[in-house]
Write a structure and sequence with these properties.
The chain is an alpha/beta fold. Helices cover 30% and strands 23% of the residues. 20% of the residues are buried.
């Protein structure tokens, strides 16, 4: 794997008490060379206080902000999203890009909740 060919997608880490396994997530960030890091929503878990240990994840994101694209999820409060923006992280509702003439759209899955409710009558 070469760094220039790998896009890393992480979804739903849910930073907050008792949610996110910091060691595994940091190991993933550090062990997989990547050109871009897409955080596909729910980095946070509402307005929960982020434990000090989980601050390492925020530090990594900010340090690598030029290669991070953060897609806002339904658990990401405006206050935390604004903090990321102010720290220079690219924050989007959705992202479109092309690789070898193939088009991709990155969007958080909550946009499809209504579809699945109707499909499976949940």
């Amino acid at each position: 794997m070469t760094e220039k060919s790998v896009y890393l997608f992480i979804s739903d880490p849910h930073l907050g008490p008792d949610y996110c396994d910091v060691k595994k997530l940091m190991k993933t960030f550090e062990s997989i060379p990547h050109k871009k890091l897409f955080i596909v929503g729910d980095l946070f878990d509402g307005k929960e206080v982020i434990p000090e240990e989980q601050q390492k994840i925020i530090d990594y994101i900010v340090k690598n902000r030029r290669k991070v694209i953060f897609i806002k999820g339904n658990h990401d409060p405006k206050e935390w999203v604004l903090v990321l923006k102010n720290l220079g992280v690219k924050v989007l509702k959705r992202c479109f890009f092309k690789i070898k003439n193939k088009k991709f759209c990155v969007i958080h899955g909550d946009k499809f909740d209504g579809f699945f409710v109707r499909l499976f009558r949940i």
